[in-house]
């Protein structure tokens, strides 16, 4: 494994997940068993928002609109931090886990449900006009989602088949063309969880149960394995300011880690100001 020093930037968390940075450099994350979404400002100050449910993956529509996969309620909710208001933006779906915007403002959502042993998981897409559709099914625990910097490739971690899928993404039609194929398989316990894209197009996959982040080049070859202090890294995200490098949520020890020497990430897409704002 490659050695990168890990700095603990937040500890004492109850199954942290969903790291994402806003445009002001603040880090957001969720705590699945703590029913909490929190923000760490660049100066280190932490503000917590009690959401209830089981908040998992996060995406930002704006600094004051945080989208939350809630595995307990089976919906994507929107938190407005300035008021503390919460409302659902989807109908009920099957235990959503992660989500990401494409460059057209579509929201791609993984829905593993209870698909650890049976291929009943699926991925759906919420269009800016509110239309919700399933875009691929028959999966064993679809989990982390990441988009290439050009928006033309979508990656999905299929945790319990220990593989990462990829496919060409047609944002206008909201479909893979053709269906996603195997990008790479992973070794070790459990499988890939959260995903992130480096600025050079490399894919970073948190391998839950194996205590590492696997790094793949754009063609799918594993080029690096970064050890994490705990066995259960759940997700990862890049600090756009560069100071914290790769940030990793780790569930066994309940920590958020900074690997400052890893580098920078690709840009993330945001929703247009008119998209996905209305409650169901």
What does this 3D model show about the protein?
With 280 residues, this protein is mostly beta strands. It has one domain: TolB, C-terminal domain (Neuraminidase, 6 Propeller). The protein contains no helices and 25 strands. The protein has strands at 7-10, 16-21, 27-31, 36-40, 46-50, 55-62, 65-70, 75-80, 85-88, 98-101, 107-111, 121-126, 132-139, 142-147, 153-158, 163-170, 175-176, 181-185, 191-197, 203-208, 212-216, 222-227, 233-238, 246-250, 255-259. Strands 14, 15, 16, 17 and 18 form a five-stranded antiparallel sheet that branches. A four-stranded antiparallel sheet has the order 1-25-24-23, with no helix packed on it. A four-stranded antiparallel sheet has the order 2-3-4-5, with no helix packed on it. Strand 20 (203-208) and strand 21 (212-216) form a beta hairpin. The protein is globular. It starts with 6 loop residues before the first strand and ends in a 21-residue tail after the last strand. The model has no long low-confidence stretch (mean pLDDT 94).
List keywords for this structure.
four-stranded antiparallel β-sheet, Neuraminidase, five-stranded antiparallel β-sheet, 50% strand, 280 residues, 25 strands, mainly beta
Task: Please write the CATH class name.
Answer: Mainly Beta
> How would a textbook summarize the main sheet?
5 strands, antiparallel
Through-space gap between termini: 46 Å
Helices and strands, in N-to-C order?
Answer: EEEEEEEEEEEEEEEEEEEEEEEEE
Please state roughly what percent of the residues sit in beta strands, choosing from under 5%, 5-15%, 15-25%, 25-35%, 35-45% or over 45%.
Answer: over 45%
> Fraction of residues in helices?
under 10%
CATH architecture: 6 Propeller
Please count the helical segments. Answer: 0
- What does the radius of gyration come to? 17 Å
Mean pLDDT: 94
Q: Care to count the β-strands?
A: 25
